[in-house]
Write a structure and sequence with these properties.
Length: about 700
C-alpha cells in the first residue's frame, strides 16, 4: 500500500451526501420529533393528568420518575456528540488508551452524583435547582456567583456540542456550518418549550435508543467487511499502522498499550472537567429532583456504569478502523492521512463509518450526531431556563410568581438560550476554535465551583465567605495557570497554544483543586456550622408535597387523600423516610468509591505502570468485552424503562384514549401517575389496590 502523507494540509474530501439530506435530518426530523413530543404531551395531559402548565410538572415531572427512565436519561445526558466523536478522536491520536480514559473520565462522576442527588432529596426535597440550595444556605451574593458559574458551564458545554456536531454535518452533507449551528437547536426549542423536563426525559429515551442501536450496528458491521473480517485482523492492522507512524509518548510507539503519556494526561483533565460538567450543570440536579427517592441512586449508578461502554467500545472500534484502514483506497482521505483539522473536528468516526458502510455509514453518522446533539442540548436548555425562571425571575423580579408567570419565564429562557448558544458557537468557529480545543479546555472554566458546591451539600462547616470567594479565586487561578503555561510551552498565547494538552491539564488541575485550599483556609479563619434543618424552613414548591417527599399534589377529595395515605397511615413516617434516604446515601457513597477505584485505579494504572503491550488474544478479549458491554447498555437504556413502569403507562394511556378510564373527574396529577406508571381509578377496588401498593 502507498505510504501515507503528512497530517498537515487542507481537507479535500467531498461530502458523500447532498445538502438536501443534511437539511432533512436537521430540520425535518427535528420538527417531526418536536411535533410528536407535542402530541405526546397532550395525550399525557388527557389520559394521566400530567399538566405542563403546572410548574412542578414542567420542571420536575412531579418528582416521580422511576429507576428505568432515570437510568436511560442519565445515559442520554452523557451521549454528547462530543462523546461519540471525541472518544474516536483520542483513540486515533493515542491508541486504545484514549477511548478508555475518555470513558473513565465520565462514569465515576455520574455515579458520584447519585450521592449528591440523594443528599439533596434528604435535606431539601422541594428544590428545583442546585442554585436554590446555595441561596438558602449562603444568601444572594453566593447565589449570584454560582448563577454565573453554572451559566458559564452550560454555555461552554453547548458550544462544545454544537461545534462538533455542525462540523460533522457539514463534512457529511456539505450543509453550511453556520446553518447547521443555528438549525440544530430549533426542534429542541419547540419540544422543550411545550413539554418541559418530561419531554426531555422522553426524547432522551427516543434519541438514546437510536444512537445505541446505530453504535451497536457499527461494532458489528466493522467485522463483516473483507478488509477487517475479525478482531484478530483488526489487531494486525493496528500493528501495521504503528509501524507506519509510531505514536510519540506511547510504549514502543504502539497504539496497543495503556502506557501512553498523552492519553493519561488527557484522562486527568477530562475526568476533572467532567466533574465540573456534572456538578455545575443544573440539568443533572433537575433530573435528580425529578426522580423518586428510591430511583435516584440506582438510576444514576446503573446509568453511569452502563455508559462506560459507549466511549470505550465505540471509540476503540471506530478509531482502530480509521487507523488500520486509512491506507486503503476506499478510505475517504486516501492516499493521505487525516489532517489535524479533520481529526480535531471529530471526523474520525464518520470517516471510519464511510469506509465500512459507504453512504449508509455517512448517513448513520449524521443521524447519531444529530440525535446526540439535540438530546443533550435539550437538557442544557431546560437547565438554563430553570435558572432564569426560578433563580433570576422568581428571586429577583417577582417573589410571588405564579405557575403561569414561571412557565412564561421558562419559555423565554428556552428560546433565549437556544439562540444564544448558537450565536456563541458561531463566534467561536470564526475565531478558529473547534471540538478539540473546547474538549481540552472545558475543565478550566467548569471546575472552580466543584468543591464549593459539593461542600455546600455535604459539609456543614463551609463558611459563607469560603463559598463565595473560593470559586472566584479558583477561576482566576485556573485561567492564570492555563494562559501562563500556554505562553511558556508555546511561546505565545494563541488559539493553537491554549488548545494544547499540557496547558489545559495544568489549568484544569489549578481550577479544580485550588478552591479546596481557599475554602478550607477561609472557613478556618471564620468557621460556621450550618443546621441542615434550616433548608426545610423555606417553601420552594408551588404545590404541596406529601410526607414521603416524592409527589407534588393539591389538597383534593377524600379519595385522593386516601390514595396518598393521609387518612389510613399508609405513608411511612418522616423518621423512617429519613432512615431510608440515609441508607441510599451510604449505598451511593460505596458505589462512588468503587466506580472510581475500578475505572481509574485498579484497572488501568497497573497496565500503565507495567508498560504492557497488548497481545492479540488480550486485544480480542478487550474489544469483545467492550462490545458486549455496549450491547448491554443498549438493553438497559431501551428495555429497562419499559419493564419499569413504561408498559403499565402505555396501557393506561391506551385505556384513556379508548374511553375506558372513568376517572377524568379526579385530579390524577396528584400522584404523577404518568411518570411512575401507576394507574388511577375512583372505584373502591382501585383505591384499595393503590393503598396496598403504598403499604408495600
Amino acid at each position: 500500500m502507498s505510504n501515507l502523507q503528512t497530517r498537515d494540509g487542507v481537507s479535500s474530501v467531498q461530502p458523500p451526501l447532498s445538502q438536501a439530506v443534511g437539511y432533512v435530518v436537521v430540520v425535518v426530523i427535528g420538527v417531526v420529533v418536536a411535533l410528536v413530543m407535542m402530541l405526546i404531551t397532550k395525550i399525557l395531559k388527557k389520559t394521566t393528568g400530567e399538566d405542563n402548565q403546572k410548574t412542578e410538572m414542567f420542571m420536575t415531572a412531579n418528582r416521580t420518575v422511576r429507576t428505568g427512565l432515570t437510568a436511560s436519561a442519565v445515559i442520554s445526558s452523557w451521549l454528547w456528540s462530543t462523546a461519540l466523536l471525541g472518544s474516536s478522536y483520542v483513540g486515533y491520536d493515542y491508541g486504545v488508551a484514549g477511548p478508555f480514559w475518555f470513558a473513565a473520565g465520565c462514569s465515576p462522576m455520574i455515579v458520584f452524583f447519585a450521592l449528591l442527588g440523594i443528599s439533596c432529596k434528604r435535606k431539601i426535597p422541594e428544590a428545583h435547582t442546585s442554585l436554590e440550595v446555595v441561596r438558602i444556605r449562603y444568601g444572594r451574593t453566593a447565589h449570584i456567583v454560582f448563577i454565573i458559574l453554572c451559566l458559564i458551564n452550560n454555555i461552554f458545554a453547548c458550544a462544545n456540542m454544537l461545534l462538533g456536531a455542525s462540523a460533522v454535518i457539514t463534512a457529511m452533507s456539505g450543509m453550511h456550518i453556520i446553518a447547521a449551528t443555528f438549525l440544530l437547536p430549533v426542534g429542541v426549542t419547540v419540544y422543550t418549550f411545550v413539554g418541559g423536563i418530561k419531554a426531555t426525559f422522553l426524547t432522551d429515551y427516543f434519541h438514546t435508543a437510536i444512537i445505541l442501536i446505530i453504535a451497536c450496528y457499527f461494532t458489528t458491521k466493522a467485522f463483516s467487511v473483507d478488509q477487517v473480517g475479525s478482531v484478530g485482523n483488526l489487531y494486525e492492522l493496528l500493528v501495521a499502522a504503528a509501524e507506519r507512524h509510531p505514536v510519540s509518548g506511547n510504549q514502543s510507539g504502539t497504539y496497543l498499550t495503556m502506557k501512553s503519556k498523552s492519553a493519561i494526561i488527557f484522562g486527568i483533565l477530562h475526568t476533572l472537567g467532567n466533574f465540573g460538567l456534572v456538578i455545575m450543570d443544573t440539568s443533572y440536579f433537575i433530573k435528580a429532583f425529578s426522580a423518586s427517592p428510591a430511583a435516584v441512586v440506582p438510576g444514576y449508578t446503573i446509568g453511569g456504569i452502563a455508559y462506560f461502554a459507549v466511549p470505550w467500545g465505540l471509540g476503540t472500534v471506530m478509531s482502530s478502523l480509521a487507523l488500520g484502514l486509512e491506507n486503503q483506497p476506499n478510505f475517504p482521505t486516501y492516499p493521505r492521512r487525516m489532517t489535524t483539522s479533520e481529526v480535531s473536528n471529530g471526523l474520525v468516526l464518520p470517516y471510519a463509518a464511510m469506509t465500512i458502510a459507504g453512504k449508509g455509514g455517512a448517513a448513520a453518522s449524521l443521524l447519531i450526531t444529530f440525535m446526540a446533539c439535540t438530546s443533550t442540548l435539550s437538557a442544557q436548555v431546560i437547565a438554563v431556563s430553570s435558572i432564569l425562571s426560578f433563580d433570576v425571575y422568581r428571586e429577583y423580579f417577582k417573589k410571588s410568581a405564579s405557575d403561569r408567570d414561571l412557565i412564561r419565564s421558562s419559555h423565554f429562557g428556552v428560546i433565549f438560550f437556544a439562540a444564544f448558544s448558537a450565536a456563541f458557537s458561531t463566534m467561536l468557529h470564526y475565531v478558529g476554535i473547534d471540538l478539540g480545543w473546547t474538549l481540552y479546555m472545558l475543565g478550566v472554566v467548569t471546575c472552580p465551583g466543584i468543591f464549593p458546591m459539593v461542600f455546600t451539600i455535604l459539609w456543614r462547616h463551609q463558611s459563607k465567605a469560603g463559598a463565595i470567594l473560593s470559586p472566584i479565586m479558583g477561576m482566576i487561578t485556573g485561567l492564570a495557570v492555563w494562559l501562563g503555561t500556554a505562553a511558556h510551552f508555546g511561546g505565545e498565547v494563541s488559539v493553537a497554544t491554549t488548545g494544547e494538552v499540557l496547558p489545559c491539564m495544568y489549568g484544569t488541575v489549578a481550577s479544580c483543586f485550588s478552591p479546596i485550599v481557599y475554602s478550607l483556609v477561609i472557613t478556618f479563619l471564620k468557621p460556621q456550622r450550618y443546621d441542615w434543618a434550616d433548608f426545610k424552613k423555606e417553601r420552594l414548591a408551588l404545590e404541596k408535597l406529601d410526607s414521603n417527599l416524592t409527589t407534588a399534589h393539591h389538597d383534593q377529595s377524600p379519595v385522593q387523600n386516601q390514595l396518598n395515605g393521609l387518612e389510613d397511615g399508609a405513608v411511612r413516617s418522616s423518621a423512617s423516610d429519613a432512615q431510608e434516604l440515609k441508607r441510599w446515601g451510604r449505598i451511593a457513597a460505596f458505589w462512588s468509591i468503587a466506580t472510581f477505584l475500578g475505572h481509574w485505579v485498579i484497572w488501568p494504572l497497573p497496565m500503565y505502570g507495567s508498560g504492557y503491550i497488548f497481545e492479540k488474544k488480550f486485544f480480542i478479549a478487550w474489544v469483545v468485552v467492550a462490545i458486549i458491554w455496549l450491547w448491554g447498555t443498549m438493553l438497559i437504556a431501551i428495555v429497562y424503562p419499559l419493564i419499569d413502569g413504561g408498559i403499565q403507562q402505555i396501557h393506561q394511556i391506551y385505556r384513556g384514549l379508548t374511553g375506558r378510564n372513568d376517572n377524568q373527574n379526579y385530579d390524577t396529577n396528584i400522584k404523577g401517575v404518568g411518570t411512575n406508571g401507576s394507574p388511577s381509578s375512583p372505584s373502591a377496588a382501585s383505591v384499595s389496590d393503590e393503598i396496598q401498593e403504598k403499604k408495600e
